[in-house]
Design brief:
alpha/beta, Rossmann fold, 6-stranded parallel β-sheet, about 15% strand, binds nicotinamide-adenine-dinucleotide, oxidoreductase, NAD(P)-bd_dom_sf
Length: about 350
């Protein structure tokens, strides 16, 4: 297994492998860049088929966190952790303690948070072994309502800001009367649907489970369609809010919306999909820019900030997106390339 030669190595500052024979912990922690501040990123527990697969995942994810934090204007770097194992079968309290001790070896240069396979309870176990654990409790939500620790309300509000900015950029108009097709009405998608409805938009929704669909239909008057068809819905905006890879060689030619803007991570199945959207004149709002509300939430909860400061920074997502879209138009290039440039200008130390 190569590390420095790995295609996703990309100048990582530190990559550590942890093995605790007593608990069976096998984990990797990658710190991509700490130029702007200590690295922050979630921990994923997944039954990776090989350590190569785990390494590729942790390298890609930690790099993504650097870009996300930089564009969001947070004094944070990017890092990520993966635990090799099945969260349903292999997770124990002792394993989480061992993970907490592993995190502590970074002495604050890596702050761990939640990702798939890891719960708030797991983080609380880790927090008994290290101070460098985020997302164990939440004090406030961006709108002043009580918070339950789930950053989805902040993520949804940021995505709403981003969609508003993109529609304004493309049409000069507000969301009133526009149609948004939402793929996945889960924690983020359903909250996004409420914001859009309040702004006067029409909703088309799809999900593979009924729960969110019922609410969207009955409370918000959304039209429910087949999940296989949501990307091709006749809408002004397609908002992927389910899993990654919504924009792929099969879905791309069928997209009818002029704008793609949603919460899902890794929406482009490959970098070529960004070029292909650009070639089709579809305005793509880079995923890691529009879905930064969650990390902004975690940052403010951890740094004894206020709901007001958090809300201001989430609303800034809309302005950042306007800047990216304007710059991409002026440079006649794909939007995600501009977002990457902006991030790199911030976190790569000036070459002397
Ligand atoms: P979630 O699991 O609550 O919701 C996802 C929804 O998508 C579920 O209802 C699921 O049934 C549905 N779904 C899955 N596959 C589908 C398909 N093929 N077609 C239609 N629907 C499908 O997750 P979430 O917290 O709402 O996150 C949604 C996305 O946003 C994820 O990609 C996540 O990584 C990303 N994201 C979330 C946050 C956050 O704060 N929760 C922050 C940043 C990014």
């Amino acid at each position: 297994m190569s590390l420095f030669e790995h295609p996703d190595f990309d100048q990582h500052e530190q990559v550590s492998f942890f093995h605790d024979p007593k608990t069976g912990l096998k984990a990797l922690i990658a710190v991509h860049n700490t130029h702007l501040g200590p690295s922050l990123g979630g921990c994923r527990m997944w039954p990776y088929a090989s350590s190569e697969e785990a390494l590729t995942d942790v390298l890609r994810l930690s790099k993504g966190m650097t870009y996300k934090a930089a564009v969001a204007g947070l004094p944070q770097g990017g890092g990520k952790a993966v635990i090799i194992g099945n969260p349903r079968a292999d997770k124990t309290q002792e394993l989480m303690y061992a993970m907490g001790r592993s995190v502590d070896t970074f002495k604050g240069q890596y702050i761990i948070a939640e990702d798939s396979g890891i719960s708030v309870q797991d983080l609380q176990y880790m927090a008994s072994e290290s101070h460098h654990v985020a997302g164990t409790s939440a004090k406030f939500a961006y709108d002043g309502t009580p918070a339950d620790g789930n950053p989805a309300p902040s993520t949804a509000y940021g995505v709403f800001m981003g969609i508003q900015a993109a529609v304004k950029h493309a049409t000069g108009q507000s969301l009133e009367g526009k149609t948004v097709a939402i793929q996945g009405v889960g924690h983020v998608g359903l909250r996004l649907a409420r914001h859009l409805k309040n702004a006067g938009a029409n909703l088309i929704v799809a999900d593979i489970f009924n729960e969110g669909l019922e609410v969207a239909k009955n409370e918000l008057g959304a039209t429910v369609i087949d999940p296989q068809q949501i990307h091709a819905a006749k809408a002004d905006v397609f908002a992927p809010c389910a899993m990654g890879g919504a924009i792929n060689p099969k879905s791309l030619p069928e997209i009818r919306a002029a704008i793609v803007a949603g919460a899902a991570n890794n929406q482009l199945s490959s970098p070529q999909m960004g070029e292909a959207l650009f070639a089709r004149d579809i305005l793509y709002v880079p995923d890691y820019v529009i879905n930064a509300g969650g990390i902004i939430d975690i940052y403010h909860q951890r740094n004894e900030s206020s709901a007001h400061a958090m809300r201001m920074q989430i609303e800034q997502i809309g302005q950042t997106i306007s800047e990216i879209l304007n710059r991409a138009r002026d440079q006649n290039c794909p939007t995600e390339q501009v977002a990457d440039q902006i991030a790199e200008e911030k976190f790569r130390p000036q070459q002397s």
